[in-house]
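quick one, 341 residues, struct below
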Amino acid sequence: MDKILVTGGAGYIGSHTIVDLIENGFEVISADNFSRSYPTMLDGIEKIINKKIKNYSGDLCEIEEARKIFIENPDIKGVIHFAAYKVVDESVEKPLMYFENNISSLINILKCIKEFTIPFFVFSSSCTVYGNPDKIPVTEDTPMQEPESPYGATKQIGEAMVQQSINRIGATAVLLRYFNPVGAHPSALIGELPIGNPANLVPAITQTAIGKLSSMIVHGNDYPTRDGTCVRDYIHVCDIAHAHTLALGFLMKKNTEKRSAIFNLGSGNGNTVLEVIDTFEKVSNIKLNYSIGPRRPGDVIAIYANNNKAKEILGWKLKYSLNEMMLTAWNWELKLKENNK
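---
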């Protein structure tokens, strides 16, 4: 079995990707210092796959902590790099913290890929690289606009770093631009578990529905969209996770004409915030307590993906509908409540 290092392995997408990799025959080790995640996520992974996961808890912004992983695992064949801060409005408030963490950790991982001759690299990017696009849906060739947040800027810089260095490093890379991952594993053993008040829409919805939050705010209803709220492309986290397994297979078959390839990972559909709330209310049979507030700094107006490239080249197929995204997210929230009794 090929050994893959997943950085940010206890995080939301990282944990689901570890499960998908192992279910598809890979051996996995994790690196996560739990600054933005919980060790219990690794417990959930282990219950699903019925095996232990080795995790390294050092800070990847420290080069020797990163090197330690590769020294102890000379058989690593590929790296999937999730480890990054990702809260848009926090990045507006603390831009230097985001640049320091997200860029430093990526530099150190790329240095290790070069030093230890790792052939395959998958980079966790984001639709925030498009900024406020002139035209939607966006394709991989849509020109990047000025990023709306420092978080988006770190993803633009990260992509440039990978593309401009990967040839000299001697590896090949896939850059995956996620849209809005939501939902949870069907087992309800892993899911989205934000630290503090949730910054993303769906955990805000589920936490309000279950009573952790007394109410939630919809950030703006005066956007030029069909109901005035922001439009996003929501995609189930398990569908996102499987794309990483497919991306590694793509690299291992030496399919890349160039040293790197980029793929959008979205459903191809745009839904407004109010449409997502309405869908949740229907599948859960719960009326949500929410109010309309002001716009939030860093939010783009509307974006959704053209995902034809990932479907055609990676063979990516979507399994989950918006209803299933909301239902699995709600089942995860119910499971958390049950575990905390």
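The chain has two domains: 3-183+234-265, 201-231+268-339.
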